[in-house]
């Protein structure tokens, strides 16, 4: 199986999970971008990176585990803050080079304590901070 | 200005757009990931890559322009298909290494004619095709 071959498959067609993961396109350091979206509101929370093992762990445990490029280690989101992401569904895109994680975010997703990481709005004229950190 | 310094800024604080763009973190080939989300429904449509000039063009024209890694050229989304993305808002994340584009997608976003690119659901047991191409 490869992602190109899936394009013509009917809705409802099923494939092996191990094949689906093995055929993802990882970059030259073995990572794939993963977008986290709150499953019920549609809010895009953050984007981070996963490797093959963090994808497998996330599916197995139901709790999102990324790969931290800055720390070069597994990043079990919320391990210290408690702001975990419970996985509701993992999706791959048409060419298998991006993941979308539908999650139930506990607490703020952003390390700044804002609900999501995308709080800087940029337009032609100026850039603007559009969100405050949450207060407990 | 750098993104780290923005963390403590109050909501409503404004900055220069050129600074905001210049201080984004581009990867070693000058690209930054950009997530496209339908502005009114919250549907995550696709993820692609932009460089500095495609960001500037997108802000200037109001129509999303990516950088195509496979073709190594500017990719004015919908130029041949008509399935353009009208920009409603561009946002950067906390560390300035990912963009979120709130867009008004015209027609299907995916080259397979599906509404969005994330049509392969992966769980522990199996992977499943969850969307059909749109019919005109």
Question: Main traits of this protein?
Answer:
homodimer; 136 residues; alpha+beta; 4-stranded mixed sheet
* Mean of all residue-level pLDDT scores of chain A: 96
Which H/E pattern describes the elements of chain A? Answer: HEHEEHEEEEEE
Trace the largest sheet of chain A across and list its strands.
Answer: 3-2-7-6
Which quaternary structure do these chains form?
homodimer
The biggest chain-chain interface is: A-B, 56 and 56 residues
Total DSSP helices of chain A: 3
What Rg of chain A is obtained from the alpha carbons, in whole angstroms? 16 Å
- Biggest beta-sheet profile of chain A: 4 strands, mixed
Helix content of chain A: 10-25%
Dominant shape of chain A: globular
Q: Which structural class best describes the helix and strand composition of chain A?
A: alpha+beta
* Strand residue percentage of chain A: 25-35%
Number of beta-strand segments of chain A: 9
Distance between the termini of chain A: 47 Å
Low-confidence stretches of chain A: none
